Amino acid sequence: MAATEKDGRKHHIGLKQGDVGRYVLLPGDPGRVETIASRFDNPRLVMQRREYTTWVGELDGVPVACTSTGIGCPSTAIAVEELHDIGADTFIRVGTSGSMQPHIKPGSLGVISGAIRDEGTSRHYLPIEFPAVADLDVTIALREAALASGFPSYVGVAQSKDSFYGQHAPERMPIADDLKRRWKAWMAGGAICSEMEAATLFIVAATLGARAGGTMLILGNPEQRPMTADEEAACDINRVIDAGVGGLRRLIAADRASGRLSR
Q: Is 190 exposed, middle or buried (0-12, 13-18, 19+ CB in 10 A)?
């Protein structure tokens, strides 16, 4: 059981049983939670504690929530553990990432089918040989929503890293040669984007018997050149927010049709 205070609230996220439903959207940035929740019916703030801000509401008559995880895998693992302990069982990461392929332009949508475990948190759950894979039903729903958006979209593997500046300024790191070599390997393997949470989200969900997936707004360029003004203009965070909420609506509909919502 996740750490619980005397009043029943989870120690880090500040929520208790009944505060959220089964479905939770997970941005990193607390500042994006209210924007995401504005797509809900009857949105309301229920808690702000540390990096964890939570709003709740309904989609198509079903309780849903949005909780920020902060940046990186350790705080993401805490959020998923504690949210699961109060009843959530389906998690969708909604965030931003960096392009890892020359043909994937800024402003594109990425649907994460799996993640490279280039981070440390997930190793405290399962051996590195165990793959970090998204739930198929969640991934299909997110793919459908991304396609319906009309924006360029890609389904594929993300690199989940622990060091932002290890990617963006590898040349000043004592292990620069290794960082650059590994980056080239991830690109050669077809990874579509680089971010900082998906691998741990997928591994923690696997150990809990929960479902998880992710959709990303893809920014930047794999060679780390600055974006042009036109590229920056294409990077509207609302693209990925709408795709994430649209994917969740599709998943709810599929769960209702299959009888999963009645369980």
A: exposed
Beta bridge partners of 66: 25, 55
- List, in sequence order, every residue forming a beta bridge with 10; answer none if it has no partner: 4
> Cβ neighbours of residue 253 under 8 Å, at least 6 residues apart?
60
Query: Rounded CA gap, 213 and 202, in Å?
Result: 7
Cα gap 239→243, rounded to integer Å: 6
Q: Which residue has the tokens 């500042």?
A: 31
Distance CA 184, CA 222 (A): 10
Instruction: Tell how strand 41-49 and strand 52-59 pair up.
Output: antiparallel
Q: Are 92 and 26 in contact (CB under 8 A)?
A: yes
Q: What does the block give as tokens for 56?
A: 């709740």
pLDDT in tens, 222-243: 888 889 999 999 999 999 999 9
Domains observed in the chain: 23-258 (3.40.50.1580)
- What values do phi and psi take at 248, rounded to 5? -65, -40
The predicted pLDDT at position 172 comes to 94
The one-character DSSP state at 228 is P
Rg (C-alpha) for the chain, rounded Å, is: 18
> By C-alpha distance, which of 232, 239, 197 is closest to 214?
197
Structure token digits, residue 97: 């990432």
Q: 68-72, 163-167, 205-209, 211-215: which has the minimum mean pLDDT?
A: 163-167
Tell me the angle at which helices 237-258 and 136-149 cross, rounded to the nearest 10 degrees.
130
Give the H/E segment covering residue 23: strand 23-26
Helix axes 73-85 and 198-208, enclosed angle (nearest 10): 30
One-letter amino acid for residue 245 of the chain: V
